[in-house]
Amino acid sequence: MKLNTHDRTPRPKNSKLVKGLLLFCWLLMFSIFCLGSFDCFYYAKSIAGGLSVLLIPILMTAIILTQIKDMEKAYIEIIDDEIYVVDYYLGIKKEKHFTFSDITSAEICIGYSHKVKGYRLNFSGMRYIIFKNDNKYLFKIIALPETEKIFKEYIR
Known about the structure:
Elements: E1 2-4, H1 16-42, H2 47-73, E2 75-79, E3 82-89, E4 92-99, E5 105-110, E6 127-133, E7 136-142, H3 145-150
Antiparallel strand pairs: 1-2, 2-3, 3-4, 5-6, 6-7
């Protein structure tokens, strides 16, 4: 059984309208930086200033898209008594293997909590199940009714 770490399983697809609106909003935001860059090029006669103003949205978009893609690819796979946790950090795959006997406790924490390690969704109402071996952090998964049902014997 394969479960997404940060989203429902199976992951719902965004419609073309939503993707189009997100692209339109990104273009509007980028156009503001283009105007600022034009001001630096034309009025201030600063090539370095204009290029640095253009680099701000490009770098921010790259960082945010990398985090989003990493969170979309993260999953937990349960095979018999083994739990395979696959996380991505900056596009690099990190795998961990646990058994159900390694888990001694689990608690549900909000996404803002510092107990939730790694990438996490930090908006209102988002909760994660944190699995521990004594007090040592093992892994996390989003707290949804189906994941709570699978791991109910470990949750306090």
